[in-house]
Amino acid sequence: METKKDINKLIIDNYSNLKPSLFFLPVFLLIAIVFFLYNENALSSDAYIKIQTKTFFFINYYLGQDPDLQFNLTQLGDDLIFLSLLSILIMYAPKIWESLISSLLLSLVFSCLLKKIFAVPRPAAVFDHSSFVIVGKALSGHTSLPSGHSITIFAILTILLFALMPSKSGYRILWSFFVILTGSVLVFTRVGIGAHYPLDVIIGGIIGYLLGLAGIFISRKYKIWTWINDKRYYPIFILLFLICSIALIGRIMAENLVIYYLSLVSLMISLYKTITIYVKK
């Protein structure tokens, strides 16, 4: 399929131009945040929450004015939802999925590990529930830092950012601005629904960017997931699409969100295309 070859070639060319120096800025930003917290004597959980309380209530109040929109958008931090929307890329841009798998496996490990290390209580575990907007289930565990949804969102968007980077400098700037803005809007929905503090999503977004880059460099150096491009393995994806579709139907029955319908439609299209391509192989 010529279109598939063209897209994959574009992605491979874009990946080959990336330098390890791209890791420097996000690492610097994380170090800067640590120094900021240190200077504010906010390295403990209580102090970390205290310095953000006013900002949290301010953002939560204004974003919480449109709870349905916030709740739909925040679902994109769920692997099932975002990856369902990108499922068609398995057929047309498998190189992206090679990066996605490595990146999201790393994201899962780092998210779980860091949440246990920091053990910061979520807003619903600290503040009176009537004092701020909570959309959906009130999350009250000690798993606030970092935001796992923010890690997922920026890991995925970072891969899309560099994989589909335009060649012209003007378009590159616009594309980068659009992706970063989109990511910022999506991660702050976690504050809007009352699930996280602002620094949780900022730190999560930076970590997600780092892990997105890591996924790209892993896929560039190692051929772990190249089998994705082999049509012989399409029955695996057909089965996965069916399982994910059933899971989405269950969510639609429970919460009936628009984003779930969009994800389900995307999966159905991918399922049809996968079966069609496999049958014709």
Itemize the secondary structure elements and their pairings.
Elements: H1 2-16, H2 24-39, H3 45-50, H4 53-63, H5 67-74, H6 79-85, H7 89-92, H8 94-118, H9 123-126, H10 148-163, H11 169-187, H12 189-192, H13 198-221, H14 234-255, H15 258-279
Précis, in short:
The chain has 281 residues and is mainly α. The protein is built from 15 helices and no strands.
Structure description:
The chain is an all-alpha fold and 281 residues long. It has two domains: 2-228; 230-281. The chain has helices at residues 2-16, 24-39, 45-50, 53-63, 67-74, 79-85, 89-92, 94-118, 123-126, 148-163, 169-187, 189-192, 198-221, 234-255, 258-279.
Attribute tags:
72% helix, 2 domains, 15 helices, 281 residues, mainly alpha
Alpha-carbon distance between the two ends = 11 Å
Largest sheet: none
What share of the residues does DSSP label as strand, in percent?
under 5%
Count every helix, treating DSSP H or I runs of 4 or more residues as helices: 15
Instruction: State the low-pLDDT regions, or none.
Output: none
| Structural class based on helices, strands and sheet pairing | mainly alpha
Give a count of the beta strands, DSSP E runs of length 2 or more. Answer: 0
